[in-house]
Amino acid sequence: MMSMTCHNIDFGTRVLDLVAVGSSSNASIERHSVKSHGKTFTSKFYGARRMICSRQDISRTRVFSTNTSEALLDGVGERTAPVLDSKKEAKMPISLANLFEVVADDLQTLNQNLHSIVGAENPVLMSAAEQIFGAGGKRMRPALVFLVSRATAELAGLKGLTTEHRRLAEIIEMIHTASLIHDDVLDESDMRRGKETVHQQYGTRVAILAGDFMFAQSSWYLANLENIEVIKLISQVIKDFASGEIKQASSLFDCDVELEEYLLKSYYKTASLIAASTKGAAIFSGADRGVTEQMYEFGKNLGLSFQVVDDILDFTQSAEQLGKPAGSDLAKGNLTAPVIFALEKEPKLREIIESEFCETGSLDKAIELVKQCGGIERAQELAKEKADLAIKNLQCLPKSNFRFALQDMVVFNLERID
Ligand code: IPE
Ligand code: IPE
Ligand code: MG
Ligand code: MG
Description:
18 helices, binds 3-methylbut-3-enyl trihydrogen diphosphate, binds magnesium ion, two-stranded antiparallel sheet
């Protein structure tokens, strides 16, 4: 929350393991192996798009038969699967609509509930909430809650989603939206989800209050779930947002920032919530500790991959494509993965960044240098590395359409930078 004070913040030890999971800055292209393939499948088994996670020693990509549901359910990870040359297959991007098809009804119910939950007590907050929820958003986090819930329910003998699963998804989306409202104030961004931001439309005070209200509202719903493990998990996330934003604000234009610090900040800002979403869903399914921990790791690795991709897109896409301002990270001194990698190669870049772009044209020059010396490509490799780990984390789940959809989400994220 915006009003959180510094003495609460622990930059500490809880997530230090995350920076040690193979994000070495000199990783070679051959090491990365998450690939997607263009076979689309017209039945409800949309997950037939083959998601392959090959290992370092496998130079060709394994592709599985997609003709039957049995093949689909048996195929992933089997060593006996046929080997095809991935380059021969036409690639077709995954669409969000297809990706979420197996939880489309769950998402529809979520959207209805979000509108009735938020801001019902105050007309101004109601309008602000309507503005941001009505603007859309990918609903990636609640979709993850639904997919993990359904993928793990079977392990515990559950037939489907419980009330707790559904409420968890609503809480997560509320927290995410609150963090975006506050983030847009901090970043002075005037566009979000293709529309004017809350602070742009209603002023900063309403935006802060609307964000606080949504954090508080979600905490109330969280407490009412009466599961102490999930309460601890999610309340930590709310603290992590503030840690991430403060960490970012205190290292602007700092060319000595290291990849590990960037990953830690990205964990606080983004991966922590996604990890809590996937772990929380598994907890409410009654999954055992081994599975809940793997789901946490899955969410963390997907979240890190997602943030790295987002940071690449800030360099490569237009505001229109993004639905939010583009090219603003570097301009504001927020040095993300592409810049951190480029700084290793190009000393001139440091000079320009440290001058805080006081000379006309120097920002464009810096962006050019980042692109020229392979910053984008190396960041792509980092995103793929985290994606590979995320795919491996899913191996503890029984094979199902929900597990395939989770795999596809990892691929979808990477395809945003193709
Ligand atoms: C945006 O998240 C914030 C980041 C973590 C980069 P999303 O891209 O999931 O935002 P919406 O919900 O789809 O608008
Ligand atoms: C988004 O961070 C906010 C959080 C993850 C809390 P950014 O500032 O990096 O992302 P956009 O570009 O505004 O979505
Ligand atoms: Mg922002
Ligand atoms: Mg920000």
